[in-house]
Specification:
single chain; 293 residues; Rossmann fold; 11 strands; alpha/beta
Length: 293
């Protein structure tokens, strides 16, 4: 069993990005600039944005955070997005989700210029990704692809089972792995809350991607010997065994499943560490105008 180590891979990619930014500087080019809009004071969002700022510093990006109270109006947020869309100094930006209930997340997402949509959530980028055109790919699916590529895991002709059909993980990764090329050429089955006989299906998977949001849902009897298991779940569970009173569990019962696997991601330390790296990769592409010219 080999661990798919998100920490090692994320550091490798950061070093590569930093080298490219250094080359851009030497040639007198513009330093990539990433902006994050943060509404309210959600703890998870605050942590993510702080990590993003730190990572931007590590690779030599310019980073800006625009903060708004959760009472901000939808009209004000749309106005700020329009300013960023038309600011030539800003290469890419994200609007950190979740947003307050009085603001339409879909309307906000569609207001972002696809050329600066480094989160990869705009329908134009999703559509381009689906048919194999160059696009900004959202962070978690891109992180999974990065792990498969860096560990040289064979995907052609393999049966991939995806548990979960969310627009953020399940749908995009199932599309990406069914596309021609590497990593791709998989036969993909998508399971969800209405799927019958899930264990029977998962036992046929050469590659099992789990993104359900249910702690330790996948047990050893659901996994084929030698399978590649990628656990996207991050579940915060109360624990008396930790100082914080909490522990993080994946959607896979790791200690039980790992001995059966050829490769498996840990939680924490797996896919999650690659989400910010994917954001950095997209911002660099935006700065270089690789996707839309």
């Amino acid at each position: 069993m080999i661990l798919l180590d998100g920490k090692i891979i994320s550091e490798q990619v950061k070093v590569e990005i930093a080298q490219e930014v250094e080359n851009i500087k030497k040639q007198g080019g513009k330093v990539p600039h990433l902006v994050a809009i943060l509404v309210g004071h959600d703890g998870g969002s605050e942590t993510y944005v702080a990590n993003k700022e730190k990572s931007c510093t590590q690779v030599g990006f310019k980073s800006t955070v625009l903060r708004f109270e959760d009472t901000v109006t939808e009209a004000k947020l749309l106005y700020e997005i329009n300013l960023l869309n038309n600011n030539p100094d800003v290469d890419g930006f994200i609007v950190q989700m979740p947003l307050p209930k009085h603001i339409s997340e879909q309307k906000i997402t569609e207001a972002i210029d696809p050329k600066k949509d480094v989160d990869g959530f705009h329908p134009l980028n999703v559509g381009r990704m689906t048919i194999g055109m160059p696009a900004y790919i959202s962070a978690t699916p891109d992180g999974i692809i990065e792990l498969l590529r860096r560990y040289k895991i064979e995907t052609s002709g393999k049966h991939c089972v995806v548990l979960g059909r969310s627009n953020i993980v399940g749908r995009p990764i199932s599309n990406l792995l069914s596309l021609k090329g590497y990593p791709g050429d998989c036969t993909v089955t998508v399971c969800h809350s209405r799927t019958k006989n899930i264990p029977e299906i998962t036992r046929t998977a050469d590659i099992l991607i789990v993104a359900l949001g249910q702690a330790e849902y996948v047990t050893a009897d659901m996994v084929k010997e030698g399978a590649v298991v990628i656990d996207v779940g991050i579940n915060r569970i109360k624990s008396d065994a930790t100082k914080s009173g909490w522990k993080l569990l994946g959607d896979v019962k790791f200690d039980e499943v790992a001995p059966k696997c050829s490769y498996i991601t840990p939680v924490p330390g797996g896919v999650g560490l690659l989400t910010i790296v994917s954001l950095l990769k997209n911002t660099l592409k935006a700065a270089k105008k690789e996707i839309y010219g």
